[in-house]
Every structure is written in structure tokens, then in C-alpha cells.
Amino acid sequence: MHAMTKIKWHYEQMTSGIHVALRSEKELANVETEFQDVSIFETRHLGKVMRIDDGIQVTTRGEHIYHEMMVHVPTLVHNRVKNVLIVGGGDGGSAREILKHHGVEKVVMLDIDEQIIELSREFLPEINNGAFDDPRFELRIGDGAEIIPQYSNCFDLIVLDAADPDGGASETLFTQSFFNNCLSALKSDGILVAQGGTPYFEPYMMQSMVSRLTQAFNNPAGIYMGGCFDYFGGSHAFIWATRSGTINTLSLEEIESRFNKADIQTKYYSPEAHFGSFFLSKDMREYVNQA
Ligand code: SAM
């Protein structure tokens, strides 16, 4: 099952008419779990890659961009994050980043597939980097959509770190009822953040999430942008939603002060990247307005 050396190409259908092919230099794992097909392989330029079904989930060369922007932007905006829920996130990158914050007391991660966590532990330790063994970390195995109704008014931050809903196990995490339950699980001043895909290739994903979250939260959801390495398409959209329909867009000086106080090490995230992420290009603003 593990450690094959045959060179092979892995294809991802980005969108209709665009396929990306990655040459694997070494296959590390190919597993058919109860829920999904998982492969982990080494590449020359992207480092190790984890693919689930037909989609790239994470690369060791570029995951920091996604995970740092997904986690540090809302955490520093909120500024008093203690209790966090991650839905999906089986590679452990989101957990690793949130656990860097000393004020965080508890991180609950709901993932449907225990084997993803085991494979990530074994083959991608540079991504989870001890997060699964942190005493503040709790893993619950099951469909996030079925477990989340058990939480009410619990979390300062909810991170939706699931693969795109392309007919796989994550479909349940993109439904209106799931987003309604996220709202109930969030504290009154909490922030929800979700990966919204790569809008230049798949604007419909970001638009449908903005529109569903807007409906669930009964107030406008919005986006901020980050660089994109793992998924191609130039830039990555992160969706935010709050009960008030606003997010505290801090001044650069305020972000710098909070970041310095947090005293965390990052590779991509910087106060400037954070500040700039809320200023949308004209086309991106139009995509959001069409949601
Ligand atoms: N960053 C990635 C992306 O943008 O594609 C997501 C990576 S993470 C590995 C996705 C995780 O979501 C996987 O570990 C998978 O098992 C989990 N997942 C899929 N469907 C789920 C569900 N219904 N409930 C909870 N976790 C789910």
C-alpha cells in the first residue's frame, strides 16, 4: 500500500477544460478510505502533495500561505480568541497555526476521516508539527454537519477547512443547514472563516458561499484575498461571516501592534499582507457583488 517508486502523473480537473498535471517522483501512500481516495506523493517543485479524490489538498511547499491567512487574519481581528472549531483540516495545518496563539485555550477539530489524520501524522509531520498532540487540541471523528448541532454559543472562531464540494465527503459542509448551525455554534462576537476557492477559476464557489453565509447570518458575508500556491489560479478567497455583517478592518498600526503582541512566527502572513487582503481588485469586487 505504501512506498511505491514508480513515476506517475496526477491530474486535477480545476474547472471544465482545465486540468493540472503533477508529476510524482515518489508515491508515499495510496489509500482508499471509507470516505475518499487519498494519495500522498513527492514532487520536484511543490514538495509533498496530498490529494483527496481528484483534488489537491495541500503541498508542503505552499501550505503556509493558505493556513496562515486563513487563521491569523480572523484571530488577530477578533483579538480574544480562546475557543476554536475547525471543520475538516485533517492535514493539521490550520490547527498548527491557531495553536501558535498563546491565548487559545481549546481547539476542537471535526474531521470525517480518521485515516487522513493518521496519514498526515505519518507522511506530513512538517504540516501538523505536533498540533495533534497539543493538550489544547481535541479531535472528533465524524461528519462535521452531523456533529456541529451539538454546539451552541461556544466558539470565538470557526474555521471551515474542507475540500471543494465536488461530490465528495465535504458536500454536507456546503449546505444551508450546515451554515445555519455554524451560526448557532458561534459566540455573539465570533468570526467564521472559510476557504472560498480560487475565484478566477471557480468564482461560483466563492459566490455561493458568500450568498449562503449571508443568508444564514442574516447579514452580509465578505471576502479577503491571499496568495495561492497549492491550488493554482493566482489568488485564493477566504470568506468571513459575523453576526453583525461587519469585520473590524484594523489600521496597519493596529495589526502590527496585535501581531507583535501575539509574538508568533510566520512565513507568509505579515501585518501588511493582512491589511492589504481586504482591499479587493475591481474584478473581485464585481464577483462578490454578483453573489
Ligand atoms: N485545504 C484543503 C482544501 O482547500 O482543499 C482542505 C484540506 S483538509 C485535508 C480537508 C479535510 O476535510 C479532510 O481531512 C477530509 O477528511 C475532511 N472532510 C471532508 N468532508 C468532511 C465532512 N463532511 N466533515 C468533516 N470533515 C470532512
Automatic annotation (TrEMBL):
Query: For this protein, what reaction is catalysed?
Result: S-adenosyl 3-(methylsulfanyl)propylamine + putrescine = S-methyl-5'-thioadenosine + spermidine + H(+)
Q: Which UniProt keywords are given for this protein, alphabetically ordered?
A: Polyamine biosynthesis, Spermidine biosynthesis, Transferase
Q: Name one GO biological process term.
A: spermidine biosynthetic process
Recorded superkingdom? Bacteria
- Catalytic residues as annotated in Swiss-Prot or TrEMBL: 161 (proton acceptor)
Which residues are involved in binding S-methyl-5'-thioadenosine?
36, 111, 143-144
Query: What EC number(s) does the entry state?
Result: 2.5.1.16
Q: Which family does it belong to?
A: Belongs to the spermidine/spermine synthase family.
Known function: Catalyzes the irreversible transfer of a propylamine group from the amino donor S-adenosylmethioninamine (decarboxy-AdoMet) to putrescine (1,4-diaminobutane) to yield spermidine.
What subunit structure does UniProt give?
A: Homodimer or homotetramer.
The record, for HAMAP family, names:
Spermidine_synth (MF_00198)
Name this protein carries in UniProt: Polyamine aminopropyltransferase
Native organism is Pseudoalteromonas phenolica
Gene giving rise to this polypeptide? speE
